[in-house]
Amino acid sequence: MNDGPARHSAKRDGGNDGEGAKRDGGHRAVVLLSGGLDSATAAALARREGFELYGLTVRYGQVHAVEIAAARAIAAALGFTAHREIDVDLRSFGGSSLVGDGEIPESELRTSPLDAARGGLSPGRRPHFELRTSSSSVPSTYVPARNTVMLSLALAWAEVLSAERIVIGVNALDYSGYPDCRPEFIAAFEYLASLATKAGIEGHAPRIWAPLQHLTKAAIIRAGVELGLDYGLTHSCYNPDAAGRPCGRCDSCELRARGFAEAGLADPLLSPRG
Known about the structure:
Layout: E1 28-32, H1 37-48, E2 52-59, H2 66-77, E3 82-87, H3 113-119, H4 146-161, E4 165-167, H5 183-196, H6 198-201, E5 207-209, H7 217-226, H8 251-263
Parallel strand pairs: 1-2, 1-4, 2-3, 4-5
Helix pairs in contact: 1-7, 3-8, 7-8
């Protein structure tokens, strides 16, 4: 962010972070913070609306830990009141290349927008990217029930905090085809929260807030830039190298690069820092 030092420290220890002293909730939001572009933008939008941010990052057995470091940097930059990291070993189940069950596939975009993003675009030029056909609408990078698991954890913490919102950065337009990113899923989980919690039966279950749901990746990026969000802190790649640099070939890299290209902006993650 470019708005000066963070006002709150992002704590990652097991303490209560002052939560027990205040149960009225105020304007609290639990943010599912992956370290990626979308969750960072959703968090920035929640902060703009005046919410006090409580970040939840889940180490679910993902092959690369660079996104965890990115989540910490985002939490610090956005002034999260608290940032918890917890372990849920979905890798023990397998079922996804993101947890080491098979190879992470390369993108199905014929023309790499990452090259366009690195080389820049002429002002006003809108790139065109052609999609290959796929044998399956759900890619191997889908982690079975991951968003259901993460939202359940966020719901538990939100109820303890009396938080008004759970913030998740899912998107149903420029995304990889995951079933748990769809609006129907978000609506269904919000209904579940109203039935399955003490807060719900008392009539004040937290809202599941997915502000990016109907935005293109380019629109998401423009929104973040307007808020001063430093996308150089974020991480999107499914298959980074040993130094954490993006591969430029996976689906997530391609979607990110296409978004920046269509927004007519350079990706700071690919730009040298002074």
